[in-house]
Amino acid sequence: MREMENIQPTASAPPLFGTAGHVDHGKSALVKALTGTDPDRLPEEQQRKISIRLGFAFLETPAGELAFVDVPGHERLVREMVAGAVGFDAVLLVVAADEGVMPQTREHLDVVELLGIRRGVVALTKVDLVEDGEWLTLLEDDVRETLSRTGLAGAGIIRTSAKTGVGLEELKRELVRLAEESKREDDSGRPFRLAADRSFKMEGFGAVVTGTVATGVLRVGDSVEVQPGGGSARVRGLQVNARSREAVSPGMRAAVNLTGLSKRGVRRGDEIVTTGCVVLSNRLDAKVRLLASAAELQSLCRLKLLKGTSELGCRLVLLDREKLKPGEECLAQIELEGSHPVFFGERFILRIPSPSITVAGGRVLDPLAQKHRRKRASYREALVELDGAGSREALPLWLKHNPLPRKDLTTQELAARSNLVPPAAEEELSRLADAGAIIKLAADRWLHPRWRHGLVENLGQALDKVLANRLPFCRLDRGRLSSLAGRNVEDGALRDAIAGLVEAGRLRPVGSSYAVLPHGEPTAEQKSRIAEAKKALENAENLALADFENLRPDAALDLAHYLEAAGNAVFIGETHLWPAGRYEELRRIAIAMLKESGTLRVVEYKERAGLSRKTATLLLDHFHERGLT
Fold first, then answer.
1. Do β-strands 198-202 and 193-195 pair in parallel, antiparallel, or remain unpaired?
2. How is 331-356 classified by DSSP, letter by letter?
3. Domains in the chain: ranges and CATH
4. Residue 326 contacts residue 110 (beta carbons within 8 Å)
5. ∠ at Cα 347 (344, 349), nearest 5°?
6. Whole-prediction pTM
7. Which of 205, 317, 211, 203 is nearest to 259 (CA)?
8. pLDDT in tens, 534-577
9. What pLDDT, on the 0 to 100 scale, is given for residue 12?
């Protein structure tokens, strides 16, 4: 890295083209002829005339800069192609005119197809070695037939020669056209992510990591995490195409100068990610497609998973069948050997370990998957909806299909599952809450309406069970309601469920507790107790709970609340019941005395009402608390 003079301002990445094709078909020579840069940087590559590592080059055109990744054609190095395919806008497929479509041509096309790349052009190279025009025509027909079964069907075919320059200008025009028509997916709100393909140390600068930016923006001074196992670091400098920059964005081939790394440093396959946005997982759910040319796969088979610059051992668990037949797609769970960074929407390739053959690919739907019971179909509904969803579209789906016992999730949890930075996730969640699609709870938690309805219903059913042997009107404190709701219900969700029962007329706030409103008829025994209590009220100034003989304290309390709710009495101080008529008489006396003198004294009130001092004090305190006097 050089010093940061002449720093370039932040700019979007140039359109990125990846070369693909069989070994020694002239990919590197073509890229050099187009750009003037030899992508083969290793002596071994230059001697053997084949690419072993990714090579990068840039072409200046009147329409702007174009970037090229020269992907190796060697059969054992498909992983280098997967590493380079991050951020491809289109593919430049190279087929040698003197050989035609070859095994690695087809495998590269398979990888391009599995990674979802649908745009490109074919360069028929080395046409200077073929004098037979009929042969070239037949070869073009063969290429068209090969492409017809892929996403590149209909791509243009241009005859070229890196040696003589034939077709290069026409090829440049086609590349510019593809670049102008390319539309990148909206990347706003995603964390920065770069898979390291090289890492080295420079005297006086620290570690330098190179790779292609997959998502997000990284700026000088930002903090990042290196995972798995590399710890945290700070960005000291950034370069793109040997030019220092303030920031880098998706599709750019970047060199990142990091300081503060642990002794472990950065290794090939590590991910450089925005701090706090790394999801480490050893199990993921995905949509998987088996190539039509591959042999069928059995559930629980062992494979190699390639993503970014990583090659990971894994086991494939088919979720809705025992075998995956050629050309089929299915939902699957992939169990990784160890924990690794995994991101929603990330694409990957699956290969048989031996012989090393590309057989399938897919897209991550759930980076933090739970182990599924295959006979339960609920998770399949979730994965079907997540298939094809973008990061923001996934947010309400995580809440709707939350597999965890606790149904409310934090912004951080939702952001991690959806491959978003927390501020972007919170903005979208707030918009959804304002639209009524989800519910915002206290303490930065969110809930889907389906779970709110379920919580309200479950708590209501729990109330019915508890109150089966109690009067149809009683009070419960919040602690008791919490125990009825269950241990997996967080505080915010409980408050929302209680609010739902209040809205439904099942509960009424009374001080620090909640009155359970009438929800059924009393039993014959309960009716007898109620009748006895009413009779006792007619013959007494007031009744204390202790006067209810042969009743447990909770049953006596239920009876008092029931009589109050029925309008027969007023419950004062949680200790005494006053007949409704006598209570109203005593309240009017207090109001009249207040109007007469402007004050209320206990001594005067007790004399006029005919009460004891203790009882008069109790009543006046009650009137004051209720705002009646």
1. unpaired
2. EEEEEEEEEEE--TT-EEEEEETTTT
3. 16-181 (3.40.50.300), 193-274 (2.40.30.10), 449-516 (1.10.10), 521-629 (1.10.10)
4. no
5. 140
6. 0.75
7. 205
8. 877 777 777 676 666 566 666 777 777 777 777 777 877 767 78
9. 64
